[in-house]
Design the sequence.
């Protein structure tokens, strides 16, 4: 089984995205799952493995009518779905199961039901004892804390940071499904409401409703199915700390680097082989860390790389071509949507299709630089 | 417990008790590994570098510098925005989250690497929080 190649045979998002007040979170999982199975040409009874985050996988299995022989409930934030792919790779190639369904659904805007996360933390946890008393309320004032250090060390301005949402909005304008499509300028970003200096509202993702799912199986099994197979060349994962204050170096993510290095090593490809890149962007600084920690830019060079339009439409390394979490949608755990766009790009069905894409990398963050997952997709087996 | 603040009140666990007992006495306590010398925070009864259980308490000088921060404009119980949420680096090495008080909550008054000193704020009979204030007048 070791030489079996893993493929995504079904991939889909929920029937609608953004504002979905008529569906609960568990139904968002199911809507995405049924769409992905239809895409694959499979039935629920074909599924023998289930993975999800944010909900208990048994909740989802029972709701969908799955009798699982393999379960992965890894739930370490928005990159969990990247990890599910990596775990699927190991499970399927070692024969633990044959067809895995990875689901995501999140009622981030309508809040049906209201999520427990992120506030308040448990008062006896490290977060409860050593962060929450200082007025931390969630990702906008936690995940953003490292960036002033980066700005100081690399002489970066708020205008540089503002370029990230400006360029991603250019991609969003090409995508009819994007939540925000209106063009914005650096001045618009700087003039938007201050959230947590140096971050203004347009540097922060919206909270929307949605979901999506992936069906994973072997290349051999996929050959008989109508879905267009996408190869998983490699994947990586890592973690660092649940406390942002204890992140080793505020200018670089150890978890990003470890996860990405493992993925590239497993895939046996180089950075220059990558045609398209998705960098989880709940906030505007994350693509900067992503470009550097994944090895696409030298330390401190990503803001210049972005300003020089390398990641923009027509650029040599298209990044976040759906508009990203900042403009496309962000339910809370964005990793699933980053992978969906990578898959659309290598299937050549994306709204803002990049020409000649063979390899796409989707890289995710979990928590406050706590965790990371990376998956390398291709439309070719190697 | 009788809260005297609307702020989030921590729940003390066995492993962190020495820290909170310290702040009640006006002491900032971290831990030091007697095997490898590593000084660390947050608390645990063994060294996160080498797993040794030979550890002792270190009484910090209270001196620190500003490593990074945001100025939060978001509503938070017990706070009046805008307020700084900072990560400070203790003279002894470890970093911890806190608030920088006693100066305008503006980028021009909150300069990275500026020297800070610990001050204490009572949240309840049990919990005294370590906060930091600038030690030099910011021009
Ligand atoms: Zn030690």
Sequence:
């Amino acid at each position: 089984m070791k030489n079996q190649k893993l493929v995504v045979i079904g991939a889909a998002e929920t029937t609608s995205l953004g504002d979905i007040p008529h569906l609960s979170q568990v139904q968002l999982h199911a809507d995405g799952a049924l769409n992905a199975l239809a895409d694959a040409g499979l039935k629920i009874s074909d599924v023998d493995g289930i993975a999800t985050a944010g909900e208990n996988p048994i909740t989802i299995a029972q709701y969908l009518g799955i009798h699982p022989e393999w379960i992965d409930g890894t739930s370490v934030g928005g990159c969990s779905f990247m990890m599910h792919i990596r775990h699927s790779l190991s499970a399927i190639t070692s024969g633990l199961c044959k067809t895995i369904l990875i689901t995501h659904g999140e009622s981030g805007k309508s809040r049906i039901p209201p999520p427990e996360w992120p506030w308040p933390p448990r008062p006896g946890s490290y977060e409860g004892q050593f962060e929450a008393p200082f007025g931390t309320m969630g990702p906008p004032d936690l995940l953003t804390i490292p960036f002033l250090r980066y700005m100081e060390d690399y002489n970066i301005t708020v205008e540089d940071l503002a370029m990230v949402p400006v360029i991603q909005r250019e991609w969003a304008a090409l995508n009819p499904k994007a939540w925000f499509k209106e063009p914005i300028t650096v001045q618009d970003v700087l003039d938007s409401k201050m959230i947590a200096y140096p971050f203004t509202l347009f540097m922060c993702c919206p909270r929307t409703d949605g979901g999506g799912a992936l069906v994973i199986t072997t290349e051999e099994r996929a050959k008989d199915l109508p879905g267009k197979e996408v190869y998983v060349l490699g994947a990586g994962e890592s973690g660092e700390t649940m406390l942002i204050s204890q992140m080793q170096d505020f200018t670089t993510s150890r978890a990003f680097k470890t996860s990405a290095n493992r993925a590239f090593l497993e895939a046996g490809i180089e950075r220059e082989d990558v045609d398209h890149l998705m960098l989880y962007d709940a906030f505007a600084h994350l693509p900067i860390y992503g470009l550097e920690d994944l090895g696409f830019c030298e330390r401190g060079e990503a803001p210049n790389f972005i300003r020089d339009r390398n990641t923009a439409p027509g650029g040599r390394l298209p990044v976040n071509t759906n508009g990203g979490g900042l403009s496309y949608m962000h339910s809370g755990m964005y990793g699933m949507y980053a992978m969906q766009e990578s898959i659309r790009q290598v299937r050549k069905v994306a709204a803002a299709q990049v020409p000649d894409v063979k390899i796409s990398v989707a890289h995710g963050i979990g928590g406050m630089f706590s965790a990371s997952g990376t998956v390398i997709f291709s439309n070719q087996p190697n | 417990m009788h809260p005297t603040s609307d702020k989030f009140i921590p729940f003390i666990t066995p492993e962190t008790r020495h820290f909170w007992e310290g702040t009640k006495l006006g002491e900032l306590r971290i831990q030091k590994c007697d095997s490898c010398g590593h000084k660390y925070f947050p608390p645990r009864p063994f060294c996160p570098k080498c797993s040794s259980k030979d550890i002792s308490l270190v009484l910090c000088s209270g001196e620190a510098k500003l490593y990074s921060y945001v100025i939060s404009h978001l509503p938070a119980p017990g706070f009046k925005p805008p307020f700084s949420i900072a990560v400070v680096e203790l003279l002894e090495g470890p970093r911890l989250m806190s608030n920088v008080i006693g100066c305008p909550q503006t980028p021009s008054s909150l300069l990275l690497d500026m020297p800070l000193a610990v001050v204490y704020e009572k949240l309840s009979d049990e919990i005294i929080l370590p906060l930091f204030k600038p030690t030099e007048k910011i021009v």
